[in-house]
Design brief:
Order of helices and strands: HEEEEHHHEEEE
Number of helices: 4
Distance between the termini: 42 Å
Shape: elongated
Number of strands: 8
Strand content: 25-35%
Structural class: alpha+beta
Radius of gyration: 18 Å
Largest sheet: 8 strands, mixed
Number of domains: 1
Strand order of the largest sheet: 1-2-3-4-5-6-7-8
């Protein structure tokens, strides 16, 4: 390695290939999205898959410090998991329930809003170092072929919900 290459690596280190956190566990850099670190983590509320979800910590230029800050935001969310799940479902209900009721449920018997929200299952949580968060509900539920996603600021300020593929 040249002296210039060494200096550049010192000034602008490449992103780590994995991130290990004592309370969260090990997250691996996604080879297709190198700014994302993902892994299965414990989530105590509303999961049908053994109490685990996929956590994705991400940032424009990930550093260990930035990943640590994102992890802190996630831990604040997990410490208040029931409140986070409830507020996220409220946001999803406000933005997406009317769309589902009017455009997606077809000939099915109409489901009341509270029952609809109770059926949402968190599948993935996205967190960046600034506390911007996204929660994806289980793929295909309740919108076939889509994730219902709520976004906001950690730990539980949700301001928008949308559909993604």
């Amino acid at each position: 390695m040249s002296l210039i290459g060494f200096a550049i690596d010192r000034l602008f280190p490449p992103p780590p290939t994995e991130f290990e956190h004592p309370e969260i566990g090990r997250l691996e850099q996604d080879r297709h999205r190198p700014n994302c670190y993902a892994g299965a983590v414990d989530w105590p509320v509303g999961t049908m898959h053994g109490g685990q979800i996929t956590l994705i910590l991400h940032g424009d230029k990930p550093t260990r410090g930035g990943l640590q800050r994102a992890a802190k935001h996630f831990l604040a969310m997990r410490a208040n998991a029931q409140r986070v799940a409830s507020k996220a479902a409220d946001c999803a209900g406000e933005y997406l329930y009317p769309k589902w009721r009017d455009e997606w449920f077809g000939d099915d018997e109409e489901i009341p809003l509270d029952a609809w929200k109770a059926g949402l299952e968190i599948e993935r949580i996205w967190v960046d170092p600034l506390g911007q968060i996204g929660i994806d509900y289980r793929f295909g539920q309740p919108f076939a072929g889509h994730h219902a996603t709520v976004s906001g600021v950690a730990p539980d300020r949700f301001d928008y919900a949308s559909l993604s593929v």
